[in-house]
Amino acid sequence: LIRSRFKGHPPPPPGIDITFRRGDQRTPQNHSYSCQRKSLLGHRFPSDEIIPMKYIVVTGGVVSGLGKGVTASSIGVLLKAGGWRVTSIKIDPYINIDAGTMSPFEHGEVFVLDDGGEADLDLGNYERFIDSTLTRDHNITTGKIYQSVIAKERKGEYLGKTVQVIPHVTDEIQDWIERVSKLPVDGSPDQPDVCIIELGGTVGDIESMPFIEALRQFQFRVGSDNFCLIHVSLVPVVGAVGEQKTKPTQHSVQALRSAGLSPHMLACRSQAPLEQSVLDKLALFCHVTPDCILNLCDVSNIWHVPLVMQEQGGHLAIMRQLKLDFRKLDLDSWAHRANKWDTVSEPVNIAIVGKYTGLGDSYLSVTKALMHSAISADRKLNIVWIEAGMLEDATLAEDPSSHADAWAKVHSVDGILVPGGFGERGTEGKILTAKYARENKVPFLGICLGMQAAVIEYARNVLGIKSAHSTEMVPECANPAVIFMPEGSTTHMGGTMRLGARRTFFKTQDCKAAKLYNSSPFIDERHRHRYEVNPDMVDKLESAGCVFVGKDETNKRMEILELDDHPFFLATQYHPEYKSRPGRPSPPFMGLILAASRQLDHYITIEAIEMRTNAPGGFIQSPLKALKRLNKPM
Questions:
Q1: pLDDT range class, residue 26, cuts 50, 70, 90
Q2: Which residue, 255, 331, 454, 619, has most beta carbons within 10 Å?
């Protein structure tokens, strides 16, 4: 029965059983409830019309890596700009439980969520584009599905039946989607209106077949008006003539339809805009209308993709299919950001000294966080990739030319970023990089292993403990500066690290880190590590000028490091890149970009902090220009 939550509304009439479904906090008078009507008796409910959950499925064909994640994220941007609450689910058909044990070279970065989930990097795209906070359950894998099915079988929940892919596995997939799609992800207690599901891989992959079948059944479970399938495909150009070929897309759609799924829309990737004759041919052979074909050709930056979709009426086609009311989209700030990235001209050069620089996706969140900060600082970002191993003395003996080239790059940049990583390879190169940045007053940001490298370097070269190292690399180290943390496991790899959002408390407000975080007493950032600074060495380090300005609630875990006598030398044990957003750049990254472009001092004044704190939503599109308008000298 509806009780105090619906105080002031007339009671339900006799014979009607009303069950609360979910509230809409946007207006206190509006509430939605699902009703099991025994007899209406002409009663009118004081509520909005109940709108069922809408589902958009994004699949891919021809080749992988076409940008399904960006496409799905851009659809979310459009719907959110229309006022709908949006959530996202990524389906990865691999058998791994999660992405935590995968090599960055093979699968790109591992994106860490607030709840400690180690997920596919596309969840990072979703969070950045839609500004949501997802959970580990928003990343579905074959491993998770089979793990759940087998657990139920062991408990006897299938009542002695033979457990099969159909219906038990496919039912588990559908139930999982329905359950997770209702979880609030935008900070409000209300469930989303639209769920965007991306199916990883390409149509025809053998590991994807249970998910394809589950989605075929799912379209009937939720109803045709609540299901929209968008297929992302490639239209290549073959030969010197430059003819755009539609046959790969035709075959991809044919494979999808043979599995029982017929796409409502096509998102065709191409280098150049598609000719009208090509669009007409795709519509004819792929069983879609011409206005339901989106041409996603290459653009200068990915923030243009939602704008391209809007220009082609993609949002209108989605609204028609899902029977959503047509709304005007508010994309002004998004368009401003996309155009600003193309027009800023003053460069800032940042070196990323890492272990996995051979694949850009290995540091995707790091590069995105740098982009968010650079555009807020009105600078054109130029990333200089440097393989950490090339800086080591061993490389000098083996390949002097590569060693010299790597150090020349380090000497040429305005700022240095040393990201996280695991294992011994390249660690000495990171330590040498931290030494160079410290001695030459170059702006420096270290993350996770980057912070540990900075601590080891300081212990060796300032404290004079030449044997200082990490027990990760040297288990029997006589003077460990970095040790294995008690929470984890040295024998099991998956899900055993210190993971997810943890609280860090500032020990002083008179530091750059606290000022970058707008003088907050504490912050919540995401972690992913097994090793950390040795508490027994902290007093020696701090007395020598290596100050840990941020610690956990026990004061035993060092979270933020700063150097007293350096213009900007900041390192964090946590990963600030995971929570950076286009509209809210990560404070440590913002500090690095500002220091590298000689703008930091004005950004961390009391007036600047107050201006940011009092701004709507705590964000200013161009904070430095806003300072100029306050007649602050730059």
A1: very low
A2: 454
Extract long-range pairs of 605-613: CB within 8 Å, 24+ residues apart. Answer: 605/632, 607/632, 608/632, 609/515, 609/518, 609/519, 612/518, 613/518, 613/519
Sign of the C-alpha dihedral computed for residues 74, 78, 81 and 87 taken in this order = negative
Q: Is 127 a catalytic residue?
A: no
The crossing angle, in degrees rounded to 10, of helices 209-222 and 170-181 is 60
| Cβ atoms of residues 380 and 345 within 8 Å | yes
Q: State pTM to two decimals.
A: 0.87
Checking 242-251 for CB contacts under 8 A at 24+ apart, the result is 244/270, 244/274, 244/275, 244/278, 246/278, 246/281, 246/282, 246/285, 248/61, 248/62, 249/61, 249/62, 249/282, 249/286, 250/282, 250/285, 250/286
Contact 244, 237 (CB under 8 A): yes
* Catalytic residue status for 448: yes
Looking at 327-392, list the stretches that DSSP marks H as alpha helix, in order from N- to C-terminal side: 332-343, 364-376
pLDDT single digits (tens) 324-337: 999 999 999 999 99
CA distance 587 to 574: 13
575 belongs to the catalytic site: yes
Rounded Cα distance between 97 and 151, Å, is 14
Q: The tokens of 244 are what?
A: 């755009």
- Rounded CA-CA distance 116/526 in Å is 8
Write down the catalytic residue from 198, 472, 525, 577. 577
Q: Which of 315, 372, 529, 575 is catalytic?
A: 575
State how far the Cα of 105 lies from the Cα of 107, in Å rounded to an integer.
6
User: Which residue in the list 448, 477, 511, 546 is annotated as catalytic?
Assistant: 448
Sequence-ordered list of residues with C-beta below 8 angstroms from that of 306, at least 6 positions apart, any chain: 74, 75, 77, 78, 81, 129, 331, 334
**3-state secondary structure at position 303:** helix
In the structure encoding, which two tokens stand for residue 605, read together?
Answer: 């004044």
Q: Which two tokens stand for residue 40?
A: 């209406």
Averaged pLDDT score across all residues of the chain: 87
| DSSP-assigned letters across all residues of 442-503 | --EEEETHHHHHHHHHHHHHTS--TTEEETTT-TT-SEEEEEE-TTS-SS--TT-SEEEEEE
Q: What type of residue is 374?
A: A
Residues facing 550 on adjacent strands: 506, 560
